[in-house]
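Task: fold both queries, return tokens.
Query 1:
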Amino acid sequence: MAKRAVHRRARKILGEEPVALVWCEVHKGIPVPPPEVHRAAGKGRLKPGRHWLLYVGAVVFFFVVVPAMLIDALSTRLEQPFQRSRSRGPRRTGPDARPSASRRRAADGAFDGDWDLTAGQLLLRWYGHSPSPQRLVMLARERVCIATSPRRRLSPTRADDFRIVAEFPLDQVRVEGETGQPRGFATFRLRFADGSWLELGRLGEPEDADHFLRTVSG
């Protein structure tokens, strides 16, 4: 479960004990909005900020790993010059020669697709509140609140500086989720009164996620 500091902070900013809470992210990424829509919303960032270690890893990959892979591939080719396989059978044609069809994922995106409705407007300002991808969704008795920490990196189990950046009364939003989803892949939706919806995933802290999904599915 999230540490006491998280629950204490949630209780303080809500003014009441949260019914359930969970750290989550926009797990499918925010699609690119039309330029005029993005401009009207202040042209805020549409991607989370990156930690400096990520850039270090990229540099190491391109200047160390990639050259090593190329050298290895080149040495393999030089070890077997002019060799061709003579054991090949006739070239296969027809259906058996084609690669098997890849599985198609559901076409559902991060939200319903209408940038003018509640979910779209929320996404346009999603990373304007914080470069961190993680958000804390808190269920209270009469409202649903979304909170975040202003820091680029945070520990979801110990964060104690998050603040509410959006809240909706229960007559304006419904949380939809199901129990029994595989851990690490569980998602839920915020469905708003105007018909728009936003899907969130990468739920943090398994026990919090289980409790959250049991609460909204009941």
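Query 1 returned. Query 2:
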Amino acid sequence: MKLKLVKATNKYRNQIVDMLDEWNNSGEEIIPYVIGRLDYSDFDYYCNNLEVRDTSEGLVPDSTFFCLDEERNIVVGAVNIRHYLNEALLLNGGHIGDGVRLSERRKGIATKMISLALKECRKLGINKVLMVCDKGNIGSAKSIENNGGILENEVVVDGVVEQRYWIDLDKVRSVE
């Protein structure tokens, strides 16, 4: 499996729409939230408004990437990288939000996708990365730990126990 992160462009429209349709048809919440918050039927609008640029309402700038399996030419997931943390993201959200489409889970994709996202964090000058997952999401926790994540603590947010992991990019090497 040869994975790479790509930006949402018309070149990948069919692959991205296919993944989002699969997710929507499942009824499961789309993660990261940002890729499901807009109507993608107007794909140009979707691409142009996917990332946060206006920080006036307390949001932070971010970068969104889709994870393409080059060998099969399908989008298998997505990551959203927040360029810095505000108070809310420091508690629950972190620097990277990631999700793998339902039909591609349990194949090691999340671990590889997070590794690619960490390379993007380095490019942005983020050397200490916070990732957060629900305590019940064992697969997500393993993917974070596989990339050097160290559990700092657990917090309860809206009745859900969230685990907060830090990845020190100066101390870990990337997973290939």
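Both queries returned. Flag for query 2: The mean pLDDT is 94.
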